[in-house]
Every structure is written in C-alpha cells, then in structure tokens.
Amino acid sequence: DGGKRPDYLAGLNPEQTEAVETLEGPVLVLAGAGTGKTRVLTTRIAHILNTGRAFPSQILAVTFTNKAAREMKERIALLVGGAVEGMPWLGTFHSIGVKLLRRHGELVGLRSDFTILDTDDVVRLIKQIIQAEGLDDKRWPAKQFAGMIDTWKNKGLGPADIPEGDARAFANGRGRYLYFAYQARLTTLNACDFGDLLMHPIAIFRKNPDLLKEYHGRFRYILVDEYQDTNTAQYMWLRLLAQRPKGELQNVCCVGDDDQSIYGWRGAEVDNILRFEKDFPGAKVIKLERNYRSTEHILGAAAHLIAHNEGRLGKTLFTDRSDPDDVKVQVHASWDSEEEARAIGEEIEQLQRGKHLLNDMAILVRASFQMREFEDRFVTLGLNYRVIGGPRFYERLEIRDAMAYFRLVAQASDDLAFERIVNTPKRGLGDTTVRALHDYARARDIPMLAAAADIIETDELKPKARKALFDVIQSFRRWQELLENTPHTELAEQILEESGYTDMWKNDKSAEAPGRLENLKELIRSMESFESMRGFLEHVSLVMDAETNENLDAVSIMTLHSAKGLEFDTVFLPGWEEGLFPHQRSLDESGRAGLEEERRLAYVGITRAKHRCHIWFVSNRRIHGLWQSTLPSRFLDELPETHVEVAEMEQSYGGYGRGGYGQSRFDKAEPFANSYSTPGWKRAQANKTDATRDNWGTRSGHAVERIGYGESGPKGRTIEGE
Ligand code: ATP
Ligand code: MG
To answer: Boundaries of each UvrD-like helicase C-terminal domain copy (predicted)?
Structure first.
C-alpha cells in the first residue's frame, strides 16, 4: 500500500513483526520470558484498530489478571495515539464470562442481576446442603467438597459429566447428587460461583448455536495472553468462540511459554499448547528468541535452572543486553527470616540512596505468610510498600459484613448475605429465628428477606424477635428505595450507620476495632470510582488484584504466582529453602510434576528481573508455628556458577548468640565464605548427610532439627530432636 509504516511497528524484530502482521488464520506464539509476547499482543491489537480491520468492540482479548487488562488498554491507547473507545471484551476469562452471563444468563436460568458467590459463601452453602441431606459435615467437610466442585469445573465437568469414581468418592457415593443439589440451589438463589462464569457460557453456546454464530460474527479477532495457564474449561470456551465453520477465517492468536506454566495446581493444562495446533490446523507457530528484559547473567541463571526440567517443549533464548557492569545473580544467606527482612531492607535503602526508584523493586515470595515479616520491617524503616494480590482487602471480616448489607440491598434474594448480617450487629435474632426463617423460606421457595416480611405477620416468632425483624425489614425497604436515586457512597454510609454496624465496632474494645473502622472508611472511599452500587459489587466479586495506590513510589511485595508477566529492575527472591521453595506440599503430593512446577515458578521469579536479582535463604524459619532448621533450596544447586555469586556475609549475621548452635552439622560459617569455585551453600549441603535430605523430603522429622521457641522468637533456642 506504499504508506509509511506506523511507528509502533518500527521497533519490532522480524519474528515479532510476523506475529503482529499475520492477521488471518490461527497464530501461536511460543516463546520464553521477556521475549515480547505481551508486547506482540498489544501491538497486534493496535495494528488491527489502526488498519480499520475491526472496531474495539469486535476484539476479544483475554489477559490473566484485571491489572494486566488495564495496562494493556493503556498501552494500546498510547500506540494508536488517542483514546480507544472502550475495549469491552478485553479482560480476564472471568470478567468476560460475567459480561456474557449478564446478557444471556436467562438461558441457564439466571436473571441478569445474579450474584457471584465467593469461596466463603460457597462453603457455607455446601455445608447447608450437606446438613440438609442428613450427612455429618464433620465427616464430609463442605470445604473439601467445594474443592472437588472447583476441580470439576476447571475441567469443564458438570454434575452429569463427572467420572463415576469421582462421584463415589464423596459422602458414600452421593457426590453427584450433592453437586446437582448445589447447582439447583445456586439457581434458586440467582447466584453462581466462579467456575460457573465459564461453565454457563459454555453451556449457553453449546445449546444455542445461533447465539454462538452471532458471537462468531462479533469477535473478528481473538487474542489470549499467558496461554500456558489456561485450564480445560477455558480452553473449551475459547475453542467454541474461536473455531469457525469451514471456509471462515479463524483469527485467533495465543501467546505463551510452557516454562512459565505455574497454575497446574489450579487445573491449568500446559497441553493446551499442543492441542492448539491440532484443533486449529494450519496454525502458524512463531518462536521469539530474543529476550529484551534481562541481562545475560539473569537469563543465564534462569536458563540453566529450567534446563533441569524434563517435560519441556524446548526453546532458545538470548539477549543483547550485556554490559561489563552487569552484576551476577547474588545469593545471600541469613540466620532467620527477621534477619532476611532486615538485610533486604538495607539493600533496598542502599539502592534508594543510589537514586533507584522503589517502584522498580519487588520482593517475590513463595508463600504469602512470608510477607508479614517484610511489611513489619518496612513499616519500621518507613519504606513505602504495596502488597499485590495478598490477603485481600475485600476478604476482611468487616468488609465482608458491609458488602453483605450492600448485596442484600441490591438483590433482595441474596439469602447468604441475609444470613450473614441478619444478626450482625446482635439484634436478638439468634439461631432459632434464623432456622425458622430458613424453613419458612424453603417451604415456600422464596428468599429469606421475603419470608421475614411474611413471618412477622404470623405468631411463629416471639414478640421481641418479631419487633427486631420488623425493624430490619423496614430498613432494607428504605435502603432499597434509595438505591436508584441516592449517590451510592452516601447510601453505603447511611446503611452502615443506620444498621448499627459502625457502632458495633465503635463499641468494640478489641485491639482490631480501630483498624476495622478504618477499613470501612476505606471501603466507602473505594466505591467512589464506580458509577453505581451494582457496578461496585460486580467489581468486588471480580477483583483479583489488591488495592494499590499507583502514585506512590513503593516496593512491591507479592507472591511469585502473581508476578507473572511483570518486570522490575531489581527483584528479591527470599526463602529459597527446601520445604518452602520447593514447597513441601508440591513434593509430598505430586512428585516430579510438582517439583517441576516449583522450578518453573523459580524460573518465573528470576526472569522478572531486568538488572539485579537477589536470592536469599535462611538457616532457620518458623513454618506452621515451629522453628525449623532449614536446608538451602535444591534450586540454588541448579544455578550456574558463571552467572551467580555468593554475597559476602551479612554484617549483622551472628548478632544473635550463636553459642551452642555452632556445633550444628550445618555449620553456619561456611555459606558465607566468599568462594566462587565452590559456592558455600554447596559445601554446607555436603556437610549434611544424604539421609537428612531424604528425611526432609518425607518430613519424617527425625533428622530435622527442631528449635524450641518461645513466643518471642528465636532467642533462647535449644535444639531438640537429634
Ligand atoms: P513474559 O513471558 O514474562 O510475560 P513477554 O514475552 O510477555 O514476557 P514482554 O513483557 O512483552 O515479554 O516484553 C518484555 C520487555 O521487553 C518489555 O519491557 C518490552 O517492552 C520489551 N520489548 C519487547 N519487544 C521489544 C522490542 N522489539 N524492542 C524493545 N523492547 C522490547
Ligand atoms: Mg507477558
């Protein structure tokens, strides 16, 4: 066409360009970390829009987190040089699922104002069902069954589809029946769980070919990031939308990296990569081999580590980003996690003095319990930090209570919300009243709030309860009327005041009460950016990402799992110890596959770093409340010496009286010898007998030193168990 090539194409390498410009037919980009897969997707969308091949509303683009979706939207806007008019179908599988269900839910028996239940609600509901069946919920825990349902849904299996063995495995063969009962109950409640956000659209599309055809017409381009972590249900969903009748073009583009598949435990199927080529014959497979993110040392370390995995598709990676000033990956050791947090804090402050932004630094932990230590330390130091994806704000007790009020105002049939708050704060509506209401509602198949309105006209309840219930109903009627015309933040505040909920915490003398009141205030604040109560409620049920103040210069703290796709100048990877990383559970439960997934997680961690990567291990860690002497992670052994350096002994190390501990077979002096030929941790490990190592793996506990501890922590420890 002879026109000038748009700027956004200029910086791409030939393979990236091919991936962006191959707009017809299926494309699979299979490439290692930092090779520009996400950038290719973003540029591809910009290119589609810029060349007028589709409107924003005709592009279906799936990202792994809501945050990634927001960022992608912003980048696209930058690339096409102006505001993109919406991109309504850019989001996570879940958020797109919600949108589809709001439109077509009636095809599976849901009204458009259905509620999305969180895990807690689901467990409560299942417990009720188990009890209603006269089963012992101690013997058959609701939580366990919730997990089974989740697993089935990840595989795209409804109650009728689950294997016979699975169905028999719970409650003496009643698994299938309970699963059916659960789904029926959800429909009655006009609610669905997370798995349904995929399962229902799949069912809808399967049963309504005309509707599916309509969506085929709508979605001219389909794109998926982090494809290696899709589960079977997601893949089924995707295939329904992307596979077109013969003769029509299948403009689907998936990008992924088998080495970064880290959600196997949640049902992700890395085999979806292989299925893609089968289900989309003629797919163009593009490999990107140049890494634009990391230095040679970082990439070298990561590549050497991941080479220890067997089940790999195999890829090449190289980088041009080498500079004589580049530092090797640093391995540090500390006495315990407090020491580790202190040392990392110091490292961060030093970087800060060197004019590095906190925004460019991240601490990536294996398990979220590791975060607290850093949070405490940073609060002491006055270092800004943000926790991403951690214990979520919306999961806190007071927030859940408040949300239950809002949910019930927005949807009067939300029985779980009703049950949660009918006696919170205490109003004399105890278990007896709730049970009476429950029975009344079940018998007539009406929501509990409606049952409450009926029951106060009868003499089923004692006068006191009747009066209290009357007040509750009146309040909800009032709030429901206000829902449409009152600003939702104002209404929210009013609800918390009038219900007595705020007062409940004001009168509470416990240490947490002030924090809870703060959180409630924060909740109201967080509603401001939404147009309506419903919009807000929907958002909350979807948030995966924790609240962050984007404007603050702050260190990010998050789990390795939530770091996927991100990059930072400096990355700290604490807790590289056997039993923590690789995680004990992965070793116990899934053998080699589990270990390989852990190794991929380590690979994801290292490859988040652009310039500096610091790995830490400690000699003592409290796991499940017990101080344990730990062994350095086997992953440390798997790092190449050419790209790794053992940092010098921390100054503060040994500050605790090491006295008696010096006798340990695991001589703490060794790891800090600044030796490059035989990294200290290897020698330290050689000092341990093989038996110790094996025992650790099976957690027999015999050879593992347990260190006695008081509440105060590691001081005054003694060694037991030898
Ligand atoms: P991950 O596997 O970790 O998700 P990725 O393959 O998606 O990584 P991107 O995040 O898209 O990689 O890119 C990594 C970094 O390299 C980004 O900072 C990106 O802007 C940069 N980058 C990608 N391609 C190019 C290019 N052609 N020129 C310059 N920088 C590039
Ligand atoms: Mg990416």
So the answer is: 296-565
**Closest of 113, 126, 142, 230 to residue 183, by C-alpha:** 126
Q: Separation of 488 CA from ligand 2 center, angstroms?
A: 37
The answer to whether the beta carbons of residues 276 and 611 sit under 8 Å apart is no
Tokens of 367: 């398990």
Return binding residues for ATP.
31-38
- Which residues, 6 or more positions from 11, have their beta carbon under 8 angstroms from its beta carbon? none
Tokens read off for 471: 């007040």
**Radius of gyration, CA atoms only, the chain:** 28
Tokens of 638: 């798997």
Residue with tokens 């970064």: 260
Which among 118, 193, 196, 225 is annotated as catalytic? Answer: 225
What SS3 state is found at 59?
strand
Pinpoint the alpha helices (H) of 484-642: 488-498, 501-506, 513-527, 533-542, 584-606, 634-637
Q: Which two tokens stand for residue 639?
A: 């790092």
Residue range 672-693, pLDDT digits in tens? 333 333 344 444 443 333 333 2
Cα separation, 492 vs 524, whole angstroms: 7
Stated as kind and residue range, the H or E segment containing 469 is helix 463-482
Alpha carbon of 62 to ligand 1 centroid (Å): 18
38 Cβ below 6 A of ligand 1 = yes
Query: Residue 284 burial by CB count (10 A; 0-12/13-18/19+): exposed, middle or buried?
Result: middle
Q: Which ligand is nearest to the CA of 34?
A: 1
37 included as an active-site residue: yes
| E strand intervals along 451-500 | none
Nearest alpha carbon to residue 598 among 368, 307, 263 = 263
Check residues 223 and 540 and name the one with the higher pLDDT. Answer: 223
CB 541 within 8 A of CB 116: yes
117: left (phi over 0), alpha (psi -120 to 50) or beta: beta
| ipTM for the whole predicted complex goes beyond 0.95 | yes
| Count of residues in the chain | 722
Residue where the block lists tokens 């089974």? 148
- The bound ligand whose nearest atom lies closest to the alpha carbon of 33 is 1
pTM: 0.75
Rounded distance, CA 565 to CA 544, Å? 15
**pLDDT at 661 > cutoff 90:** no
DSSP H or E run through 284? strand 284-288
Name the residues around ion ligand 2, CB cutoff 5 A: 37-38, 565
Q: How is residue 294 written in tokens? A: 């990391």
CA-to-CA distance for 380 and 243, rounded, in angstroms?
Answer: 55
3-class DSSP assignment, residue 650: coil
Note whether 645 and 593 are within 8 A (CB): no
Residues making up the binding site? 31-38
